[in-house]
Amino acid sequence: MKRYLFLWTALLLAGSVPAQSYDGLWPGMNNLFQLSDAQSRSVSPENFSGEKGQGGKADPADATTPNRANAALAARDLGRGWKVNPYIDIPSGETFTLADIEGPGAIQHIWMTPTGNWRFSTLRIYWDDETTPSVECPVGDFFAMGWGEYAPLSSLAVCVNPGSAFNCYWPMPFRKRCRITMENLNDEEPMRLYYQIDYTLTEIPEDAGYFHAQWRRANPTRNSEYTLIDGVEGQGHYVGVYMAWGVHNNGWWGEGEIKFYLDSDRDFPTICGTGTEDYFCGSYNFDRDGVYQTYNTPYAGLHQVIRPDGMYRSQQRFGLYRWHIADPIRFSRNLRITIQDLGWRHGGRYLPQQSDIASTVFWYQKEPHAPFPVYPDWEQLEVN
Fold first, then answer.
1. Which residue, 37, 265, 358, 365, could crosslink 244 as a Cys pair with Cβ 3.0–4.6 Å?
2. The pLDDT value given to residue 26
3. Which CATH number is associated with domain 38-45+87-381?
4. What integer is the mean pLDDT of 12-24?
């Protein structure tokens, strides 16, 4: 039968797919018992290739070679096989290839613990020998930590756990090749990274789309409207967004409607929301008794509220996510998404705002994808 991959995956996560439709890609509780010919593999600093039987082979004698025996000193009494290279260091201005995998297969889980300024570390993912990335964004924003500060997050697609453990569960199929890189844009210090990328080698359905993620920012917004994504061309479906929203004015800030322009919609969208907090599955200003209430759910949350402290924190800042796992928004030709930047002012009037908004949009589509906007330099990335 025809497999609509993402709906199928969402149902798997919910444990509601009949066992006979499971082919070893993404199991759910309802079919976890079912065996498969898929092969499990994992890339980490202890096994850069991910090949079978090649983990934990780092030699302490290679301590003079960068990223080959970084913990040789700690392992000096135990020797080879005892946690000799559990992490990498990425010098300022350099890019490191975290994984280069031959397919067909699918990324199932990514775990990492990046140090330093999370806005200054750029994660990129390339599918099937493409020359421009399908994923390009600061590592903090990819894992819903755009303000550079830890906040616990528990959802189906992304989890951030103590002390700063980033986890991603977006399924990422590929047919020929997957290449993942990290660039350190910080001109002051190296980046230390522990990471593990878990994947399966298996056949991929013909109708499987490729995972994409794109970062944008406006500081401040213009004309009180922010564009989350534009210029997406081809067939696919939008599966969610993380937003780092910094407010420059007093009062409630989230009156703006989100609008989805599907398949050449022009002046008016096909899907129009009713307010910012409503889109993120909250209501009435996220407010109980005059206090913002943070929340984590499988599909949506306001997981971070950063309040002014009278010293260096001068504005309110918010972290929000909305995953369309059970309700992907499908497009056949193109996609554009905007959100209004509106608050309240005297007399019950809307207040056009000029906020600092950054977003990371996630979607699946057929390749090739349209070119991404030029990636900004550190001045446009920095939280300020």
1. 358
2. 77
3. 2.60.120.1390
4. 48
| Dihedrals phi, psi of 9, to nearest 5 degrees | -65, -40
Closest residue by Cα to residue 25 from 16, 15, 12, 14: 12
According to DSSP H, which parts of the chain are helical?
5-14, 139-142, 276-279, 378-381
Q: Which of 252, 258, 281 is nearest to 270 (CA)?
A: 258
| Residue 65 amino acid letter | T
Tokens 């993942």, located at residue: 180
Name the residue ranges covered by the structural domains of the chain.
38-45+87-381, 46-86
Contact 271, 259 (CB under 8 A): yes
Contact 197, 96 (CB under 8 A): no
Q: Is 76 helix (H, G, I), strand (E, B) or coil?
A: coil
Q: What percent of the chain has pLDDT over 90?
A: 87
Q: Are strands 210-218 and 121-127 parallel, antiparallel or unpaired?
A: unpaired
- Give the number of other Cβ atoms within 10 Å of residue 178's Cβ: 26
Q: Which helix (H) or strand (E) holds 364?
A: strand 356-365
Whether 138 and 373 have beta carbons less than 8 Å apart is answered as no
CA dist 234 and 334 (Å) reads 6
The C-alpha atoms of residue 19 and residue 236 are separated, in whole angstroms, by 26
52: left (phi over 0), alpha (psi -120 to 50) or beta: beta
CA distance 62 to 84: 10
Residue whose C-alpha is closest to residue 229's, from 131, 368, 358: 358
Say if CB 307 and CB 318 are below 8 A apart.
no
Q: Determine the pLDDT at residue 22.
A: 52
State yes or no: pLDDT of 4 exceeds 80.
Answer: no
DSSP string for residues in 183-213: EE--SS--EEE-EEEEEEE----TTPPEEEE
Task: Give residue-wise pLDDT tens across range 279-295.
Answer: 999 999 999 999 999 99
